[in-house]
Each structure stands twice: as C-alpha cells, then as structure tokens.
Amino acid sequence: MQCPDCQSTHVVKGGRRQRHTTMTQVHQLFVRLDAELEDAVSIVNESHH
C-alpha cells in the first residue's frame, strides 16, 4: 500500500527530506497498516510451507 500523501508531500531538497505538511496521522496509519499486512502475509506464507 502506498500512502497517498507521500507521493506529493515528501519532497527531497538538498538531500534532506521535508516533513509531511499535512495528513501526518494518516501517513502513520498507512505505515502501520503496511507493516501489519506484511506480517500477515509472511505468517500465511510460512503456514503453507
């Protein structure tokens, strides 16, 4: 899953990432969901082998 905000607000200038200007909490939710999804997928994969 891709955070919809990242594509537009993560701007790299001078090698430094700018902070989110908006929707920071939404971004954190996406990151957390992403991690949980990966965990679930890996668990499913392990149980199949």
Describe the fold and architecture.
With 49 residues, the protein is mostly helical. The chain has 2 helices and 2 strands. The protein has helices at 6-9, 24-48; strands at 12-13, 16-17. It has a two-stranded antiparallel ribbon. Strand 1 (12-13) and strand 2 (16-17) form a beta hairpin. The longest helix is centred in the C-terminal third of the chain and has 25 residues, at 24-48.
Order of helices and strands: HEEH
Radius of gyration: 15 Å
Number of strands: 2
Helix share, percent? 55-70%
Strand order of the largest sheet: 1-2
Largest sheet: 2 strands, antiparallel
Structural class per helix/strand content?
A: mainly alpha
- The total domain count is 1
Which regions have little confidence, pLDDT < 50, spanning 5+ residues? none
What would you call the shape? rod-shaped
The portion of residues forming beta strands comes to: 5-15%
N-to-C terminal Cα separation, in Å? Answer: 25 Å
Question: What can be said about this structure in brief?
Answer:
By secondary structure, the protein is mainly alpha-helical. The protein is built from two helices and two strands.
